[in-house]
Amino acid sequence: MRKRFGRNDIILISVIVIISVALLLIWKLVYLKGQDTDSDACVEVTIDGRAYGTYPLSKDDTIEIKNGDGDVTNTLVIKGGVADMTSADCPDHLCVKKKAISKEGESIICLPNKVVVTVKSDTKSDIDSISK
């Protein structure tokens, strides 16, 4: 004997799919609201915890990040509102393989060279998170 989907089974599956899609859309709207890059967004570059410089994402630029000896360790390219690490002299090149960043709080980290690039913005997000 073959069991077929009954009318109630189809209704149940449809309701589950609709609820899942609705929850996904609500999550995307709530989570991504305020996450877009603002015109005042900038990237902050630090080396070994010390500020190296702050650069606006609105202006295309190429920043050669140098260590204490004056040697270029990393190259950061800002183009089209995104920042991307294009070269590094570290052995693993994980920072170069990381995708370009443009949203508040995103970062590129080069551990061997102790370089951290983070997107900052003066605009406050409407979303607050509270942890208990």
Helix count, per DSSP?
A: 2
The ordered string of helix (H) and strand (E) elements is: HEEEEEHEE
- CATH homologous superfamily identity of the largest domain: N-utilization substance G protein NusG, insert domain
Q: Outline, from the CA principal axes?
A: elongated
User: How many domains comprise the coordinates?
Assistant: 2
| Name of the CATH architecture of the largest domain | Sandwich
Biggest sheet layout:
4 strands, antiparallel
CA(first)-CA(last) distance:
54 Å
Q: Helix fraction?
A: 10-25%
Radius of gyration: 22 Å
**Arrangement of strands in the largest sheet:** 2-1-7-6
Q: What class would the helix/strand composition place it in?
A: alpha+beta
* Percentage of residues in strands: 25-35%
Number of separate strands: 7
